[in-house]
Hints:
Blueprint lengths: L1 H28 L22 E3 L6 E3 L10 H4 L12 E2 L5 E3 L8 E7 L10 H6 L11 H4 L8 E3 L5 E3 L5 E3 L6 E2 L2 E2 L5 E7 L8 H17 L4 E4 H4 L13 H8 L15
Parallel strand pairs: 3-7, 5-11, 5-12, 6-11
Antiparallel strand pairs: 1-2, 4-8, 6-7, 9-10
Helix pairs in contact: 5-7
Amino acid sequence: MKWLLFTLILTGLIIWWRYAQISQNNRSSAKPQAKPAPKTSSPAKSVEPKNMAQCPHCGLRFPQGEGVGAYCSREHRSSIDPKGWWGEAEWIKSPNYDSRPEGIPVELVLMHHISLPPGQFGGNHIADFFQNKLDPKAHPYFAEIADRQVSSHFLIRRDGHVQQFVSTLNRAWHAGVSDYFGRERCNDFSIGIELEGSDDVPFGPAQYTALKELVAALQKFHPISAFAGHSDVAPGRKTDPGIHFEWQRFAQDANIPSRQLPYGLENRN
């Protein structure tokens, strides 16, 4: 009986030892599992830089498409910039200008009219004339004037489109021999505005609207104190802007006080 019990115990020990050995072998032969890679945040998407523009008025840089055309704001576009250029105008720079006399403020606006050929509207002949590019062979009249060097600060086309040829800080060559109540050389202290037109044709509503906006910008930038016609400062030699320029309408539209119209509100040559 004792031997039977001893045999059973010994057999159990052998079985337990053998089972433990097999388990140990299985654990040692098993391949270790790789640890999962730590989660990383997805890389941020690169932001492409925006094309930038620079406001001609103040020099501010801003993303293209976020301003008003080439300007950072509507206010700057509708103003005369520090260099004397109006943001609402098409800039066509003329070589026919020089510096104003030092210390003389711009106080007078002179109204003109022009058409090239005379009595005909449209085309680029006026801009060519102010740039010394007028073709003398394009029309018989052009042969008479092609060699003249003249300019105006602004031209208002029949459709109201405004072109600027000379900075308001500089002296354009538009008045010629002139006298404003004893002050000669009106180019020294004036700004010239040409209206596309003639003595025989009324000016259009779009021209008066553009003129009003231009005058408002000029008044904010220069100490304008008077408005006159070319015929007022060169009587007998010039007739523009002519009898069809409506001074009363201009004064009312542009809110010009009567004291700034020393030659009166009647249409005149």
